Amino acid sequence: MKKKNRFSVPSKYIFAALALLCVGMMFASYSTGFAGETLGRISGYLFVPFERGINFVGGWARDKADSLEDLADAQARNEELQAQVDELTLENSRLMQNQYRLEELEELYALDQTYSEYNKVAANIIASDAGNWFNTFVIDKGSADGIAVDMNVIAGSGLVGIVTRVGDNWAQVRSIIDDMSNVSAQVLSTSDLCFVKGDLQLMESGLIQLSQLRDPEGEASIGDTVVTSHVSDKYHSGILIGYINELTLDSNNLTRSGTLTPAVDFEHLHSVLVITDLKQTIEEE
Questions:
Q1: Nearest alpha-carbon partner for 155 in 17, 10, 267
Q2: Which of 115, 123, 190, 193 has the CB geometry, 3.0–4.6 Å to 139, for a possible disulfide?
Q3: Could you tell me if residue 211 is left (phi over 0), alpha (psi between -120 and 50 degrees) or otherwise beta?
């Protein structure tokens, strides 16, 4: 069974008819004066809704364009502000580093004045063993600057260690916290002799070993100052090492041992002073 052909009018004919109607109405309005209230009312019904729709769409498009433009401006402003924040953060970091460096230099200057009887050379630490503690490290001064093996090294408030190797423009330092370090010392208040030994495990708690304290009267106590002794063959006497943290009587009932809080912060070393006078030379003179 054949389907009936549905009657349809091409859109171009509809458009042509509407155009002719509009032209006809325009002609009628101008020739007969029919443009008055009736034609205006018809135009209002036909075109005003269409015009409102166009205005609405146009307004929406303008709002979207303005919103996109505002968003682009906000993003650009945000990027500009972020760049300023990054610059200020970097500048603040530089200022903090400069402040820390200034404080460190002031400490070195005060230390230089404390041990003014010795000649010294300032040096920066340029390398160290792996880990957080400066048990051995390298400085940027060497034999060309008058540095030699067995020269004492100080920083912060006291003794850091001793020079063990030297090159033309570098030197290696073993600090008193290193396991290989053993310093002859004495309690300042009693002049009793002892030894200060490095111990990296203890250093995790900020302490070093104090042993063989010859204190028969038990006069030494917590908080007493410990310095290098006059009987040391490499260390100048009287250099601050640290403060007694605890003491216990040894099994021989003659000596005492314990721990010492060092005067130097061995976790944050950057610069040091090297005493260029060797102890043997001083004693010979």
A1: 267
A2: 123
A3: beta
Task: Tokens 């109405």: give the residue.
Answer: 25
Give DSSP secondary structure letters for 253-285. SSEEEEEEEESS-TTS--EEEEE-S-HHHHHH-
| Residue 225, H or E segment | strand 225-228
Distance of alpha carbon 261 from alpha carbon 212, whole angstroms: 17
Cβ neighbours of residue 157 under 8 Å, at least 6 residues apart? 107, 111, 240, 263, 264
Asked whether the beta carbons of 218 and 265 are under 8 A apart, the reply is no
Residue 147, CA distances (Å) to 87, 110, 161 in order: 41, 22, 14
The secondary structure of 74-101, three-state, reads HHHHHHHHHHHHHHHHHHHHHHHHHHHH
pLDDT digits (tens, 9 = 90+) for 164-222: 999 999 999 999 999 999 999 999 999 999 999 998 888 888 899 999 998 877 889 99
3-state secondary structure 45-85: HHHHHHHHHHHHHHHHHHHHHHHHHHHHHHHHHHHHHHHHH
Helix (H, G, I), strand (E, B) or coil at 178: coil
Read off the tokens for 23.
């032209």
Cβ atoms of 267 and 132 closer than 8 Å: yes
Q: Which tokens sit at 129?
A: 């063993």
Answer whether 278's CB lies under 8 Å from 173's CB: no
Q: What is the pLDDT of residues 34-88, one digit of tens each?
A: 545 555 555 555 555 655 666 666 667 667 677 777 777 888 888 888 888 877 7
Phi–psi pair at 71, nearest 5 degrees:
-65, -40
